[in-house]
Amino acid sequence: MMNGVLTHPCSSLWRVAEQFQPADAIADIQEFGQGNINSTFLVTLKNESDQHFILQRLNTQVFPKPQLVMQNIRTYSEHVCQRLCETTGSCPRRWEVPKVLLTTTGQDHWVSPKGDFWRAISYIESAQSLEAIADLHQAQEVGYALGMFHDLISDLPAHQLADTLVGFHITPQYLQQYEHLQGTQVPHPAPEVDYCVQFIRDRQQQADVLERAKAKGDLKLRLIHGDPKINNILIDPDTQEAVSVIDLDTVKPGLIHYDIGDCLRSGCNPLGEETEEWEKVCFDLDQCQAILQGYVGVAQSFLTPQDYDYLYDAIHLLPFELGLRFFTDYLAGNVYFKVHYPEHNLNRALVQFKLTESIEAQAADIRALIKTWQ
């Protein structure tokens, strides 16, 4: 999504772009997307094909070791590109991988005199990100995209990528962070706050279900995307097929169940996570079935019986986890997620908790659905 022209050739942002392309090759720079973490811009180049690239300032408070983030992305993209080259001709569908672009001096990033960490990523042309799933075909394509992502890295050992966000998607650690803030005076006491406090209290014993499975050896460490929400999946507008998964900052070792649960959390809430009508939020079982059908169609070659056993737990846990993170950030003063008003993170938490409630109400149906693939 473009938000308007921001820069002039004499601006500091223009000078950042010139680190990755000659000045006379740049035509335009616009703000791009609606990310909660990094600052992202679309750079248009002067040529007949109207090519672009993505320019980003990495949030080094969230990613304190940005060089390792870049190393992970390069390792991932090089491996997947090699896999795709090996299967050329056997896969009739288009699939593309975002690639790291080097500076004019051959580096994979540039640090400004102020200490800002900048990088450039290739832009996937003729593709659109999803803000909402339009129909069940699109839902199945979302599942296909995540399955394709996992399949292409299923043979890349987890230890080859650094853990750039230690504790990310470790729900018991988020619960500990919340408990440290208990007793904090909330900015505006309200029934919604009491609802969140009670909601977390009633479900805190379930927070470690996937970590316990990992400790028991039921689930193994693999490489994951880390943030496979639907707007990180690109669709070809002509074919209506998924063609890429983007936003690779959180690619790291983890449990694929975190990815599956997060994708379904994002894809099965028709009202979206930013809705203010949180009381009306529900989990769409039909979209869940379509996403899982698309995913399993690709991923069945590497899924184990134990993986299926914990699918419901993943679907149930991830909206709870995100709601917990939103509510904790609200109590902390909105220090992590970008907000547009003081109660923004509180509202986001309510959305996720209502989604969790809807999943619980349909637990038997979701488990029955999963059994169709076991």
Task: Give the termini separation.
Answer: 39 Å
Q: Largest sheet, described in full?
A: 7 strands, antiparallel
Mind telling me which CATH architecture of the largest domain this is?
A: Alpha-Beta Complex
Overall helicity: 40-55%
Strand element count: 12
The coarse overall form would be globular
Elements, N to C (H/E): EHEEEHEEEEHHHHEEEEHHHHHH
Strand fraction: 5-15%
Instruction: Please state the CA-atom Rg, rounded to the nearest Å.
Output: 21 Å
What is the H level of CATH, i.e. the homologous superfamily of the largest domain?
Answer: Aminoglycoside phosphotransferase (APH), C-terminal lobe
**CATH fold-type name of the largest domain:** Aminoglycoside 3'-phosphotransferase, Chain: A, domain 2
Structural descriptors:
7-stranded antiparallel beta sheet; single chain; 13% strand; disordered N terminus; Phosphorylase Kinase, domain 1; 374 residues; globular; Aminoglycoside 3'-phosphotransferase, Chain: A, domain 2; 12 strands; 2 domains; 12 helices; alpha+beta
Description:
By secondary structure, the protein is of the alpha+beta class. The chain has two domains: 123 residues, Phosphorylase Kinase, domain 1 (2-Layer Sandwich), CATH 3.30.200.20; 243 residues, Alpha-Beta Complex (Aminoglycoside 3'-phosphotransferase, Chain: A, domain 2). 42% of the residues lie in helices and 13% in strands. It is built from twelve helices and twelve strands. The strands form three sheets. Strands 1, 2, 3, 4, 5, 6 and 7 form a seven-stranded antiparallel β-sheet that branches. Helix 3 packs antiparallel against helix 7, helix 5 crosses helix 11 and helix 10 runs antiparallel to helix 11. The longest helix has 22 residues. It is globular and about 60 Å long. The chain starts with a strand and ends with a helix. The N terminus is likely disordered.
